[in-house]
Write a structure and sequence with these properties.
By secondary structure, this protein is an all-alpha fold. Helix content is about 80%, strand content about 0%. The chain contains 20 helices and no strands.
Length: about 450
């Protein structure tokens, strides 16, 4: 007699149970693995990008990727604007002989116009800076850049004294309101550190140095159509700067209270201003007396001696970039001290040089040494008074330069009494005082963030 229907049903159920048992165990194991994966910390997109760059190209590639960030675009845009703005000023200064020869200007008249424009720019920059800090309107910088370009174009296309005078003054007013707004923008929207500040400052140095080389006397005969072409780059770059600001993901300068908006200079800011005055004295002294020394003391032709300033300017471009990099590595105070020591040594060798062959190279070295302190002293002042970024940058870059020019007549008297090389020797004490002021600054140490991959590795451990 065969098995009953009930026993057959029990056998089928047992077989099905044994067949499903491995599947259930696998499902339990899978669920356990899933739980382990879920409880592990999630990795952000930035961390994945950093790890990929670390594995493919190393840490340098990870750092290089930050160039394409929004902050990099903002720094690039405002550095280009700085180049154009200061290039307009340099072009006007280079056009003075052509304006005298081709448009009948009297030398005293045109130099007076330039002097008035310089005074307006120096005095007006702190006022414009306070307005930018209060209103937080970076469009002021774009308006200033456009005004500089239009003023340059009008000075070339103008036919009478009134028109050219108005154009030159418009250029200096535009430059006056551009600088504080530009420095405010890179600090607020790009959180500019030593390197970024150095790149921005280098833009101005390049513009001021390159514009005279590109100027041609034929430009003063420009038609109004040519004037429009000359003014267009400034207008376009100003719009580019405003668009770049809108892409910033951060705001490093939040709204300040009424008490914080009061301009109360502190010790660090005063020291930075004194250092900037000493710096500008050495800078203006070299620009004034180096060609005269090369001509009268070494017998070099005057046009060749004037080109010696090109070596000083080239060294300044290199020094500005290197100063930002060194400041980020070892700190701003140490960079200022190194700049003072190097400037003192180069000024001493330049003042006592006995062979004209070494003078251009010493001028190159002095420019690099002096400009090492350019970006650090600006950044120290802005950090000392974070709620007055625009006004502080205007004082450091504008008014301090005017104060430094007070010593030029004194150095001229020294040259008449002791010879044309004496002013270069007289600049050495100013460099020594820069060292003294730098040692009085508060010590700062650069804070380096850990690499993403290193942080992730520690978290996983």
């Amino acid at each position: 007699m065969g098995p009953s229907i009930s026993s057959l049903g029990n056998i089928a159920a047992d077989r099905a149970r044994r067949r499903c048992a491995p599947t259930l165990n696998q499902n339990e194991t899978t669920s356990k693995k899933t739980e382990v994966i879920i409880i592990r910390p999630a990795r952000s997109t930035d961390q994945h990008h950093a790890d990929n760059a670390e594995g493919l190209f190393g840490r340098r590639a990870a750092r290089r990727s930050s160039v394409y960030s929004a902050h990099g675009r903002i720094i690039a845009a405002w550095s280009l604007a700085h180049l154009i703005n200061d290039g307009c000023t340099g072009a006007v200064l280079a056009a003075i002989p052509s304006l005298i020869v081709y448009k009948g200007f009297d030398q005293q008249t045109i130099t007076t116009i330039i002097a008035v424009g310089s005074v307006i720019s120096s005095i007006g920059q702190p006022i414009a800076g306070l307005a930018v800090d209060k209103t937080r309107r970076t469009v002021i910088g774009a308006i200033g850049l456009s005004a500089s370009g239009i003023g340059l174009a009008m000075s070339f296309a103008g036919r009478d004294t009134v028109g050219i005078t108005t154009a030159v003054l418009l250029l200096y007013v535009g430059s006056c309101i551009f600088h504080p707004a530009a420095a405010y923008s890179i600090r607020r929207f790009a959180d500019a550190g030593p390197r970024s500040t150095a790149v921005f400052a280098t833009g101005g140095a390049l513009g001021f140095a390159v514009a005279p080389l590109l100027f041609r006397p034929e430009f003063v005969h420009a038609s109004w159509l040519m004037a429009v072409v000359i003014a267009v780059p400034g207008v376009l770059v100003s719009l580019l700067c405003l668009l770049a600001n809108r892409t910033s993901p951060t705001d490093s300068l939040p709204h300040s209270t009424k008490a914080q908006r009061r301009f109360r200079p502190n010790r660090m800011f005063v020291l930075a201003v004194v250092s900037a005055c000493l710096w500008s004295t050495v800078f203006l002294g070299i620009n004034t007396f180096l060609p005269l020394t090369m001509h009268f003391s070494f017998g070099i032709a005057l046009d060749t001696a004037s080109r010696g300033l090109g070596f000083f300017g080239a060294g300044g471009v290199v020094g500005t970039l290197v100063g930002g990099w060194v400041g980020a590595r070892i700190g701003l105070k140490r960079t200022m001290i190194i700049a003072g020591v190097a400037s003192t040594a180069c000024a001493t060798f330049l003042g006592l040089a006995g062979d004209a062959t070494w003078v251009p190279f010493l001028a190159l070295a002095l420019g690099a040494a002096l400009y090492l302190a350019y970006a650090p002293q600006l950044l120290i002042a802005m950090k000392a008074m974070p709620h007055h970024t625009a006004a502080v940058s205007a004082i450091i870059l504008g008014s301090s330069t005017t104060i430094g020019s007070v010593f030029i007549p004194v150095l001229n008297q020294v040259a008449e009494a002791l010879g044309h090389r004496a002013p270069l020797v007289a600049l050495i004490p100013f460099s020594v005082l820069m060292i003294v002021i730098s040692t009085m600054l508060t010590s700062d140490r650069p804070h380096r963030e850990r690499d993403h991959s290193d942080a992730n590795r520690n978290d996983n451990d």
